[in-house]
Amino acid sequence: MARQLTVIAIMKAKKGSEEELGNRLKALVEPSRSEAGCINYDCHQDQENPGEWVMYENWKDRSDLDHHFTMPYHIKFIADLPDLIEGEIEMHYLDMRSQFAR
């Protein structure tokens, strides 16, 4: 049985790349939201550390996320990341354990 998957991805921009990283992340929002398995896909910037960007995503199931990772615009974004971020993306894959809000 398929389970909804929540993804939180945290990235820290290299000094001087804060705005560029944010622009690239925001450019992913609309095409990602148009994918069949996407429930929501949102871009956030840390209030106290503007170089830290967080993507909050919900997918109908893991196979939808796996498909998202094969999209050409996502592959291009990942290929460009070494020039934009410090270190690696911090990825969290979460299963909801509470009831859905009504």
Describe the structure.
Helices cover 31% and strands 34% of the residues. It has a single domain (5-87), classed as Alpha-Beta Plaits (2-Layer Sandwich), CATH 3.30.70.100. The protein contains 3 helices and 4 strands; from the N terminus they run βαββααβ. It has helices spanning 18-33, 62-68, 72-80, and strands at residues 5-13, 38-45, 52-59, 85-94. The two termini are 22 Å apart. It has a 4-stranded antiparallel sheet. With 102 residues, it is α+β, with helices and mostly antiparallel strands.
| SS strand fraction | 25-35%
Distance between the termini: 22 Å
Task: Give start-end ranges of low-pLDDT stretches.
Answer: none
In round numbers, the mean pLDDT is 95
CATH architecture: 2-Layer Sandwich
Shape: globular
Count of individual beta strands: 4
Helix content: 25-40%
Count of distinct structural domains? 1
Strand order of the largest sheet: 2-3-1-4
Count of helical stretches:
3
Query: What CATH first level would be assigned?
Result: Alpha Beta
Largest sheet: 4 strands, antiparallel
Tell me the radius of gyration.
14 Å
Structural class determined from secondary elements:
alpha+beta
**CATH-assigned fold name:** Alpha-Beta Plaits
Pattern of helices and strands: EHEEHHE
What is this structure, in a nutshell?
By secondary structure, the chain is an alpha+beta fold.
Descriptive tags:
single chain; 102 residues; alpha+beta; Alpha-Beta Plaits; 3 helices; 31% helix
Topology:
Elements: E1 5-13, H1 18-33, E2 38-45, E3 52-59, H2 62-68, H3 72-80, E4 85-94
Antiparallel strand pairs: 1-3, 1-4, 2-3
